[in-house]
Task: inverse folding
């Protein structure tokens, strides 16, 4: 397969001023007529090249009403239609036929629960009709949909409704016009039997917007929360960025079969049900947060993505990094900023850091790809958001807002590059961001080392050095701009007496400072810092780096207990817990007795006792670092020792804090209950703590604890508590374990999103026979290779969330995954390729395991007719 290079970008030589589409919908054969008004730009080529795909047939092709002849007037290959002798301007009419019913790839037009829907980003539109399917070709779309009225009463497309009516034979039609020129990836169509929740929003510009959320009838009752989130998003974007909505309707449709989370098609978002439906008895608090975040994300795309879009797919982070940043800020403003940041950083470390450290590493703005769908990655999204966040930190919020204004002023209605965004920020702020741009082009997570020294007199010196590890295709790296936010923690708050700052330090006015690192090694000097103050570094995770410091253990505990920056208290507990895991792992490797630091247990215990002031924060302080996290920052240890040590430490904490855990469990449980009766949002924070306590309690295997788990499982009315109890049950050796798991299934079998949770909980099992449990689940009648959510809950969870089981020495975990990928490759290559992620995370593994993984990769690569997306991932991992 061919590599596409950023360096090869060339503008499209034609303009498509308008496109008029007519769909005659039928599951087995849908006929699409597309009329393009084309204009040749300048003296450019007279060959009009359109993208196409192997899953559609060309029925006819007319230019200005004249039927064109194959070979003489045009050429058709598997991926292109080339029309010759294009005049200066002309109308091209393309008629194609497609089979939505057979489309299990879920890109282009397909069926979900019997309803028609589309997914066109990144390159799905070319499977509907021949078209310049690239983001820099913007056109004004009008759409006519015809379908059987009884089966498909609802007919939707982008823009505003512009007519509807009956046609003979039980058919009807609807017309949609979208006045905003857009690239084809933002096209959408939905037709089906759908129920609708309606509301409205009055914009700051005086427009009355109708808001609709369409779902299957049975799911209608679960849409209120999403509707509220949509209205909050609309208001937030007006207040924060002065951006208002620009059509008369905003439609959201929820479908069960979806490759991504959701899609921001202009005026017609298509969502995975997982990110729309929310009801306390079937969705968890985390699900609610995700719904709010994704509803916000897709809404915010209307400006960052739709009004200003990407010139080419290498610029994907232009819209995704920025929009993730915007949804993160929205969620922070709606809830707890620090908790949101803790969770986002955790997600970054879990997904992006390992990506950056392995064979799939690529810059935020990649330079080449075989399959663009493989680049909807944590790097483009989450690291991309961090890059935007750093810019905001460096130039300040006020200048950032000015930069956003300038960006829209310059680029509204066009397709631009990451460079254009940075340029707007630079021009609006007056800051020089030349070196900063390396964040877009250099892959790899920078590693910084901070050495704190006392200088002459009252001088405090921070020496910071950085290295950027080499990544595929990038051996040599240049020093990056790294904004380090820090303060000096004392027992009575931040030390405010620092002065005489070196010129690379900027006071932020809130007790914190911004250290601007720009070289391989920098020095930052302060005067007058209180002698006992402890540097609290990288507050709020001001840059996506790995950091090592020379802080003593005493100082580390000081940060854990006293820092005014809550985020850094959590970071410190995470660091101390990991350090303890590694210490125990070393003891295991040296066949020594395993010991656990009393000081650590005592500090955690003290935090736990003081839970009432900030239960969510304490829950984060107490949480064990994930297996993933433990592996990704370990050095020289074997994963076996690290997994064993992690388990050992978890158990020890559970036993040593047994009394407190139980009492905090009981009191947070009742606090959550009474708060939620009052409709108080704080209930979420108490439930979070309650369930962290529960997960520790489960590790004791104690009688009283097991009773509480079973009670919670049986009595709880919220899915948050029910699921936490189910997860505890799965790992436990409670006698009724199997029976209760089955009971959960029976109670929720009709709700597919809950059944997903049921699969996922079991995929995380720590039981000895987990591999055969997975095999059984793969044969379960509700398991299906055609539903991406189901694949992700069983295969994805097992391989990315249950590392100690996945990496068992026997290699069975790798085999299970490879088998699933081989099967999926024929059904849904995009999802198959995504499932390959864990096979690219072998750099911390021993030779033996690497060989086992290599064997499976070879098997995958040997498959005849292997899809392009899977080929790209497997060959990169195999190299
Ligand atoms: N639908 C995906 C997202 O919103 C891709 N644009 O991020
Ligand atoms: Zn997005």
Result:
């Amino acid at each position: 397969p061919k590599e596409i290079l950023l360096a090869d970008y060339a503008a499209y030589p034609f303009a498509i001023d308008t496109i008029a589409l007519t769909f005659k919908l039928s599951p087995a054969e849908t006929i699409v007529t597309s009329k393009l008004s084309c204009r040749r730009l300048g003296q450019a080529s007279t060959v009009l090249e359109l993208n196409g795909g192997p899953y559609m047939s060309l029925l006819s092709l007319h230019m200005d009403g004249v039927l064109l002849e194959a070979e003489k007037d045009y050429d058709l290959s598997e991926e292109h239609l080339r029309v010759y002798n294009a005049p200066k301007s002309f109308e091209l009419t393309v008629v194609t036929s497609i089979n939505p019913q057979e489309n299990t790839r879920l890109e282009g037009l397909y069926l979900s629960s019997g309803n028609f829907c589309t997914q066109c980003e990144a390159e799905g539109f070319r499977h509907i009709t021949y078209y310049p399917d690239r983001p820099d070709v913007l056109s004004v779309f009008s759409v006519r949909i015809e379908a059987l009225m009884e089966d498909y009463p609802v007919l939707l497309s982008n823009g505003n409704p512009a007519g509807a009516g009956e046609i003979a034979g039980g058919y009807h039609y609807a017309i949609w016009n979208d006045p905003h020129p857009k690239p084809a990836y933002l096209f959408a169509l939905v037709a089906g039997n759908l129920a609708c929740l309606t509301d409205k929003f009055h914009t700051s510009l005086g427009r009355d917007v109708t808001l609709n959320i369409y779902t299957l009838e049975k799911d209608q009752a679960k849409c209120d929360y999403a509707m509220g989130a949509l209205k909050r998003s609309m208001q937030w974007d007006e207040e924060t960025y002065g951006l208002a909505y620009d059509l008369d309707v905003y439609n959201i449709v929820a479908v069960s079969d979806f490759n991504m989370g959701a899609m921001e098609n202009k005026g017609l978002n298509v969502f995975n049900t997982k990110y729309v439906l929310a009801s306390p008895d079937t969705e968890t608090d985390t699900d609610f947060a995700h719904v709010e975040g994704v509803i916000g994300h897709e809404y915010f795309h209307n400006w960052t993505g739709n009004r200003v879009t990407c010139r080419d797919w290498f610029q994907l982070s232009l819209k995704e990094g920025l929009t993730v940043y915007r949804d993160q800020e929205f969620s922070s403003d709606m809830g707890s900023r620090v908790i949101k940041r803790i969770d986002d950083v955790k997600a970054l470390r879990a997904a992006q850091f390992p990506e950056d450290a392995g064979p799939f590493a690529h810059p935020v703005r990649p330079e080449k790809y075989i399959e663009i769908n493989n680049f909807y990655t944590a790097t483009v999204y989450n690291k991309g958001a961090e890059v935007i966040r750093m810019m905001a930190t460096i130039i300040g919020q006020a200048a950032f807002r000015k930069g956003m204004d300038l960006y829209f002023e310059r680029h509204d209605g066009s397709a631009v590059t990451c460079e254009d965004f940075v340029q707007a920020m630079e021009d609006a702020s007056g800051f020089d961001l030349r070196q900063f741009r390396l964040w877009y082009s250099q892959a790899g997570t920078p590693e910084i080392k901070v050495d704190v020294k006392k200088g002459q007199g009252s001088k405090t010196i921070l020496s910071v050095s950085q290295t950027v590890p080499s990544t595929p295709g990038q051996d040599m790296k240049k020093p990056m701009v790294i904004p380090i936010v820090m303060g000096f923690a004392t027992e009575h708050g931040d030390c405010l007496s620092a002065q005489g700052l070196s010129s690379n330090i900027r006071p932020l006015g809130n007790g914190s400072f911004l250290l601007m690192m720009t070289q391989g090694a920098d020095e930052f000097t302060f005067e007058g810092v209180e002698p006992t103050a402890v540097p609290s570094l990288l507050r709020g995770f001001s840059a996506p780096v790995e950091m090592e410091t020379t802080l003593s253990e005493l100082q580390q505990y000081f940060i854990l207990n006293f820092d005014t920056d809550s985020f850094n208290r959590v970071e410190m507990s995470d660091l101390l817990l990991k350090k303890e895991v590694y210490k125990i792992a070393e003891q295991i490797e040296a066949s020594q007795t395993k010991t656990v630091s009393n000081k650590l247990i005592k500090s955690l215990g003290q935090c736990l006792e003081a839970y009432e002031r900030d239960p969510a924060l304490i829950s984060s302080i107490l949480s064990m670092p994930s297996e993933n996290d433990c592996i990704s920052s370990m050095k020289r240890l074997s994963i076996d020792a690290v997994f064993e040590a992690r388990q050992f430490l978890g158990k020890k904490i559970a036993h040593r804090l047994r009394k407190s855990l139980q009492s905090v469990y009981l009191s947070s449980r009742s606090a959550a209950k009474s708060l939620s009766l009052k409709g108080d949002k704080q209930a979420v924070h108490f439930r979070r703590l309650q369930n962290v306590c529960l997960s520790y309690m489960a590790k004791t295997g104690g009688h009283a604890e097991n009773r509480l788990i079973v009670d919670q499982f049986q009595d709880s009315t919220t899915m948050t508590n029910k699921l936490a109890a189910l997860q505890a049950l799965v790992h436990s050796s409670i006698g009724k374990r199997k029976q209760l798991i089955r009971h959960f299934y029976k109670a929720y079998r009709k709700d597919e999103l809950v059944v997903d949770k049921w699969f996922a909980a079991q995929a995380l099992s720590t039981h000895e026979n987990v591999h055969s449990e997975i095999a059984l689940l793969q044969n379960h009648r509700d398991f299906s290779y055609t539903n991406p959510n189901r694949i992700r809950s069983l295969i994805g969870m097992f391989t990315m969330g249950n590392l100690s089981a996945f990496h068992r020495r026997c290699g069975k975990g790798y085999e299970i995954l490879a088998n699933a990928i081989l099967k999926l490759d024929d059904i849904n290559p995009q999802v198959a390729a995504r499932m390959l992620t864990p096979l690219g995370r072998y750099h911390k593994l021993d030779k033996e395991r690497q060989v086992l993984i290599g064997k499976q990769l070879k098997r995958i690569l040997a498959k005849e007719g292997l899809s392009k997306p899977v080929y790209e991932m497997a060959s990169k991992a195999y190299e």
Remarks:
- The first strand starts at residue 4 and ends at 5.
- The chain has a mean pLDDT of 97.
- Residues 749-879 form a domain with the Zincin-like fold fold (CATH 1.25.50.10).
